[in-house]
Amino acid sequence: MALAVAVGAGAGAGSIVFRWCIKTFTRLFSGHADYAAFPGAVNPHVPWLGPYFVLLAPVVGGLLYGPLMNRFAKEARGHGVPEVMLAVAQRGGRISPKVAVVKTLASALCIGSGGSVGREGPIVQIGSALGATLGRLARVSEGRMKLLVACGAAGGIAATFNAPLAGVFFAMELILGTFGAEAFGATVLASVTASVIGRAAFGNVAFLRLPGFRVDHLAQYGLFTALGVGAAVVGVGFSRFLYLIEDACDWLWRGPEWLRPAVGGLALGLVLLLLPQMYGVGYPVLQKATEGGYAIGFLLLLLVGKMLATSLTIGIGGSGGVFAPSLFIGAMLGSAYGTAVHHLLPGSAGAVGAYALVGMGAVFAGAARAPITAVVILFELTGEYSIILPLMLAIVLATAASRLLTRDTIYTLKLRRRGIDLEGPAPGARIGSQRVGAVMEPLPSPLSASTTLADSVDLLRLSGHGALPVVDDAGAYVGVVTAQAVAEALAEQPDDAPTRVGQLAEAPLPVVADQPLAHALHTLLSAAGTGVPVLDSEQGKPVGWLSHQSALRAVHTTA
Fold this sequence. Notes:
The protein is mainly α. The chain is built from 22 helices and 5 strands. The protein has helices at residues 2-30, 57-72, 81-90, 98-112, 120-138, 142-161, 164-176, 181-202, 219-252, 260-274, 283-290, 296-315, 323-344, 352-368, 371-382, 388-405, 412-417, 436-439, 453-463, 483-492, 517-526, 548-552; strands at 447-448, 467-471, 477-482, 531-535, 542-547. The strands form 2 sheets. The chain has a 3-stranded mixed beta sheet. A two-stranded antiparallel sheet has the order 4-5. Strand 4 (531-535) and strand 5 form a beta hairpin. Helix 1 crosses helix 6 and helix 11 (283-290) runs parallel beside helix 13. It is globular and about 90 Å long. It starts with a helix and ends in a 7-residue tail after the last helix.
């Protein structure tokens, strides 16, 4: 608890420093606190350049943060969250302390000089690095180290966006990938601490100022449903386009990496010259879109422009997050969609801003596939509860549609392109690369589904597995019954109620013989008994048994 509070305090202080750096560098490079609020304006520091200063700002910024990252922390390049996910999944939560400093300066320089990226990725990496550093100093176990990294991520999100609940669910859903009482308690402590510090510095205000919304007609739910599915396509498309541009930049660039952001900054500068609304994070533009301040054609232009500008910023070696761009793209999509349906159905479409808000959450859910975080963070960022039902509907549909369209999210795709599978073994791990069929034990004698609980007691007691497979009268596999389930049933049922084993059998997630052991371990660890049946990949019949002991036996086998 004390460590979680300390990490939260550090993340809160880090967010203050980070946001101050962004504002300072933005004023230095553009002459305004947020140039997106004054697109096309002249930089008062160099008025003789007129609006053409945006051609040089990304170049100068790249000359500063490019060598900084290349020399001290190459992992600070990009949007940050995948690196934290990798550290938790395969590196025991270990993150270099210098990442916090380098990421703060590099991302602030990138955003301040026109980089069209967000600040959530950097603050997650900054907070996580602080958590890992404190864990290393306190010499905590690996499990606690991972938890402190998640606390840092939660605190960073909470303080930066004034969203304490969203920080908690972001850390648990995306960083830890699991929900538990200890994890929830620790991340809440860190998030609350960071939020208190953040509110003391930035005030307790909502991210967007929106008018009240309400659903007047049931037909609007159909419109929100269509928006959710469309947003999934746009979110997945954004992910693909981001890495397509990054591949193109990798293919074109042949010089030293430290110079890449500066040279690539010329291309980014051209985009900013044509569409100055892309400068920096772009919250003022997003706010105006939710108010219906743009025509449909210009909204679609802003949508495409943000995809291009963000992808270019990341592709040339910039440092910044993709969460805010996802919200921006979703707001443009939702506003354009809302304006269109308002013209077609003026009496029942409702307010345009409602569609913008729903589009923000749905596109992020489609790209990141984090529905709980999307719902909570949109509610907290806007303070708007009246639209919660269509928001939840669209976000869940966007998540489901995204899962059908692609295996990866915008975060995991970056790692998979580097040959890293978060669910697989870490490089060089002694367990994980083997196939299940090479280490499984012989299949124990199955129980018939018609076996009574009283008769199953001795069979389960003598098996040594704590669980046994169950088959029906025809010999078809039904599931697994555990000793725990039988004991609970015997304790709860009256003597005259002869429950059969088949009524208690549950089918765990399938584990097949040709599956990598690393993937099967996730199922084994979540199983109620001491093992799970191994199925034939073609017919789905049990052919063996995978237990914790047989998994350890893999240490003495070859891949």
